[in-house]
Specification:
Distance between the termini: 65 Å
Number of domains: 2
Mean pLDDT: 81
Oligomer: single chain
Number of helices: 11
Number of strands: 0
Structural class: mainly alpha
Strand content: under 5%
Low-confidence stretches: 1-6
Radius of gyration: 20 Å
Order of helices and strands: HHHHHHHHHHH
Shape: elongated
């Protein structure tokens, strides 16, 4: 077994345990989250993560080419698919989708997620990765499907809905989580849908 597979070598600290595969990756990504919580994204280094995970820098670089990829991998590790609701009414579909997304945010370490999302505003490359893998572009596709169904029922005019309008429900939910902290409750989700999103989407 090579040192790259075992998680030793390439500057690994003395006494590092030989690990491989999923066990090694899990310990590395746990170390990323711990480092983020302790020092923040701006001060996080590959060297610091490697030391905390008791492995070598080369092991990390072979799997993740840069810091942003490593951080996003850690944040997205527990990601699972969100089912697309089909209740027969756009309002209920949006509420169910945002509720599922809020539950996903709660499953992450909120202090870490808020810190990385705040940093993403200043670093375009990180922002794109967060949007694609953590915030999940496929959820915008889910909203598009909900809108297509609503259009077929006559609830909205899909032709007048812009990409920015389509992304609004998830943007508002994400901002609530990042800026206010803590779980996003049912009342907030209802306000997002009833007071902002639906009136805009139903504008002819």
């Amino acid at each position: 077994m090579s040192t790259a597979e075992s998680g030793t070598g390439d500057g690994a600290p003395r006494g590092a345990t030989r690990r491989r595969g999923e066990e090694l990756e899990r310990e590395i990504l746990d170390a990323v989250l711990d480092e983020l919580a302790e020092v923040g994204y701006a001060r996080l280094t590959i060297e610091g993560v490697a030391a905390r995970a008791r492995t070598g820098r080369g092991v990390l670089y072979r799997r993740w080419p840069n810091r942003a990829e490593l951080v996003v991998a850690a944040l997205g590790r527990r990601r699972s698919g969100v089912p697309v609701p089909d209740t027969g009414a756009l309002r209920h579909d949006l509420v169910e989708l945002l509720r599922a997304m809020a539950g996903r945010f709660e499953g992450m370490r909120d202090d870490v997620v808020r810190g990385v999302m705040a940093e993403a505003v200043r670093e375009p490359g990180l922002s794109e990765l967060v949007q694609a893998r953590v915030a999940q572009v496929e959820l915008e596709d889910a909203v598009e499907l909900l809108l297509a169904r609503a259009d077929a029922r006559g609830e909205v005019n899909r032709a007048r809905i812009t990409p920015r309008m389509r992304s609004l429900p998830l943007d508002l939910l994400r901002n609530e989580f990042v800026l206010r902290g803590g779980p996003v409750g049912e009342e907030v989700i209802a306000e997002i849908v009833d007071e902002i999103v639906l009136p805009l989407l139903r504008t002819r």
